[in-house]
Design goal:
Layout lengths: L1 H8 L4 E4 L7 E7 L2 E9 L3 H14 L9 E7 L2 E7 L4 E2 L9 H11 L11 H5 L25 E3 L9 E2 L4 E2 L7 E3 L3 H12 L4 H9 L9 H14 L7 H10 L1
Antiparallel strand pairs: 1-2, 2-3, 3-5, 4-5, 6-8, 7-10, 8-9
Length: 250
């Protein structure tokens, strides 16, 4: 594995392992290419292989908002990918934080990118959700049309702790759950993060309203999205209390 990595990055001067997180193997390398994070997963780990595939597809569309992808290999029984080490610290989303304008600028940039065809549709991932508001029913409404229609690049896993800031700008790493759908969905996730950080639902929605992508969102659409999130368990890291607060407000 080291030979393949060094063929792209140059000689590795230092390396340190990180605790296992989203990948079974994660190391930070110092090389002529800079500080690079290398992640690996066994070839028989189908879920992680799919996540690496999603990150590779999204990488071509995330310049300036996510750490740059440096390479991807299959070697020695492992899926391996390398990307620039994510800079900064976890964003402070609490009311009055100086990080909020940086996060807003990031969300605005991220909402302007179309997703590559190889990524799944968010509607297909969520599936039909009986019992949600608006006559969702068992078919159709989540099937790639209506309020979940869209070809925009989505992170779909924007949760507390996912956003980083380096003092100058915000970053959104780890596009393992990337999908295509309506551009406002990641902003809706950010609204939940803001509520979780201490904003009232009204204040969080007011911050979202400053983003052009949010200009056409109706309350019934947002309520349907929140119910879909809860019913399917989609990205369970979404703060459940924030979902409750948002639905009560709507």
């Amino acid at each position: 594995m080291r030979r393949e990595v060094e063929a792209v990055l140059g000689p590795v001067a230092a390396a340190r392992l990180l605790p296992a997180g989203s990948s079974p193997l994660t190391a930070v390398l110092e090389s002529p290419a800079g500080t690079v994070c290398v992640e690996g997963a066994p070839l028989d780990d189908g879920e992680r292989a799919a996540a690496f595939e999603a990150r590779a597809h999204a990488a071509a569309r995330t310049a300036g908002i996510a750490p740059r992808m440096r390479g991807r290999w299959t070697v020695g029984g492992w899926h391996v990918l390398a990307h620039d080490h994510a800079p900064g610290r976890t964003a402070d989303l609490s009311p009055g934080s100086p990080d909020l304008p940086l996060v807003a600028a990031l969300l605005d940039q991220a909402s302007l990118r179309t997703g590559p065809d190889a990524l799944p549709l968010l509607a297909d991932r969520l599936g039909a959700v009986p019992g949600s508001p608006g006559g969702l029913g068992g078919t159709g409404w989540l099937g790639g049309t209506g309020w979940l229609a869209g070809e925009w690049l989505l992170h779909t896993a924007l949760a507390p702790g996912a956003l980083l800031v380096d003092g100058r700008r915000a970053w959104l790493p780890d596009w393992s759950s990337a999908a295509r759908g309506p551009a406002w969905c990641d902003v809706a996730d950010a609204v939940l993060c803001l509520i979780n950080a201490g904003h009232t639902p009204a204040a969080a929605l007011d911050l979202a309203a400053h983003l052009p992508v949010w200009s056409h969102i109706r309350n019934d659409t947002l309520a349907a999205w929140a119910h879909a999130r809860r019913t399917t368990g989609h990205h369970e890291q979404a703060p459940p209390r924030a979902l409750d607060q948002l639905l009560s407000h709507l």
